[in-house]
Design brief:
The chain is α+β, with helices and mostly antiparallel strands. Helices cover about 20% and strands about 20% of the residues. It has a 12-stranded antiparallel beta barrel. Strand 1 and strand 2 form a beta hairpin. Helix 2 crosses helix 4. It starts with a helix and ends in a 10-residue tail after the last helix. About 20% of the residues have low confidence.
Length: about 400
């Protein structure tokens, strides 16, 4: 029996396979196989004729599947392996590497892992004006057959009296905060000059804060979405601010992003960015919560001892012949728009010495484009990001471009 036929037979098994959501066909959410509703990992029974394979053989099978199916939709075979039973799930966790090491999206936790250092992750965004929905897909550009595009996340714009919310979900048809597809949200102030990114899970850092705002403490998230041992709420992970343009001078928008849980030292060769591995059964996070005392600072908290990473937009140059501001997007952006931007790392704060600000960080790292976003057609935009950002963080930053900013233009 060939490996592909073997995996196909596994997918057709009714016993031992978790419930995989097929809602929305092409716009379906990630198969929910890391944790089954109302079941802990210890409660999953060893069922089916494939449940008692020798561990060495089982790991070899899963590794072969993981190495052969590197792109979607074939990547679903790896997800199917994790849905058979407890032993298959453990083997799949061991075989699947993080996004930073493999550059492959497999499970929803990949959306919150930093991208690889040596290559950017290329995606595109579709905007649906009728429903105020934004869909993030994996790939260079939309394919001829839309059903082949891999949906990563979706966001819906919700206007409030005091600002705007972007609710981010794994599914494009379910934006309930009580759903197990809820990822996080983006909230703006009244003028559209300051945005706050909230994550549904505690950040994977040395310390874990309590919910950052009063509204977050009232938010109740369904037990299917998080472990009962983890606190339910929204956790502030980033702040994006736009510079006011009171004089109405010509030029692009100026933005600044503070990533509260990514240290500036992560840009050095020896540095590392926080990487969630399994947000549902993260026992080490629970241990940190039990021994935690956090000091609030206004509505947000900076819980990293190191200085946080700050991103700023790369300054464009004025093109005399075209009479417009230009940036080199290397062919990834083809339509001029005020929404187009490139973000690079900003140097450390001015109250630190030069050695403290740039210790171990090369000048080339500060000039490297970490996130770029731009228009390629009507309601179609490209989004390319790299280490140390995750897909969720990059998508949230790009969503700020779609909000009205009367004081910045």
């Amino acid at each position: 029996m060939s490996l592909r036929n073997f995996v196909r037979e596994l997918k057709e098994m009714k016993e031992g396979i978790g419930s995989i959501s097929k809602r929305g066909s092409t716009q379906s959410a990630w198969p929910n196989t890391w944790h089954l509703p109302n079941q802990s990992e210890e409660e999953i029974e060893q069922t089916g004729r494939w449940a008692h394979l020798p561990p060495e053989l089982l790991l070899d099978i899963v590794q072969r599947v993981e190495e052969s199916d590197v792109a979607w939709p074939e990547r679903r075979n790896v997800v199917a392996c994790a849905a058979v039973c407890r032993s298959w799930r453990s083997a799949t966790k061991e075989a699947v590497k993080t996004l930073q090491l493999s550059a492959r999206f497999t499970f929803p936790v990949s959306l919150k892992q930093p991208a690889p250092r040596d290559q950017p992750i290329q995606c595109f965004v579709r905007r649906d004006r009728s429903t105020s929905t934004f869909r993030l897909y994996l790939g260079l550009s939309p394919s001829l057959h839309g059903e082949n595009d891999k949906l990563l996340m979706a966001a819906r714009k919700v206007r409030r009296a005091t600002g705007t919310d972007f609710v981010i979900s794994l599914a494009s048809d379910d934006f309930s905060k009580n759903s197990n597809t809820y990822v996080g949200k983006l909230r703006s102030n009244f003028l559209g000059t300051k945005f706050t990114v909230f994550d549904s899970h505690p950040p994977p850092s040395n310390q874990v804060p309590q919910p950052a705002t009063r509204s977050a403490t009232k938010t109740r998230i369904n037990s299917k979405q998080v472990s009962p041992r983890l606190p339910a709420g929204n956790y502030e992970i980033a702040t994006i601010s736009y510079e006011l343009n009171m004089l109405r001078t010509r030029g692009p928008r100026r933005m600044r992003c503070t990533m509260h849980h990514i240290p500036l030292s992560s840009l050095s060769q020896t540095g590392s960015a926080p990487t969630p591995l399994d947000p549902v059964h993260a026992d080490h996070v629970v241990d940190q919560l039990s021994n935690l005392s956090v000091k609030k600072e206004g509505h947000g908290m900076n819980i990293n001892r190191d200085e946080p990473l700050v991103l700023k937009n790369k300054a464009p140059r004025w093109h005399e012949q075209l009479q417009c501001w230009c940036l080199n997007f290397r062919g990834r952006v083809t339509v001029a728009s005020v929404k187009n931007f490139q973000l690079v790392a900003a140097p450390g704060s001015v109250d630190q010495s030069e050695s403290e600000r740039g210790e171990g960080i090369q000048a080339a790292e500060l000039e490297k484009v970490i996130l770029q976003f731009g228009k390629i057609g009507k309601d179609i935009f490209t989004m390319d990001y790299r280490y140390p950002l995750s897909a969720f963080q990059a998508f949230a930053i790009c969503l700020t471009s779609f909000d009205t900013k009367p004081a910045c233009e």
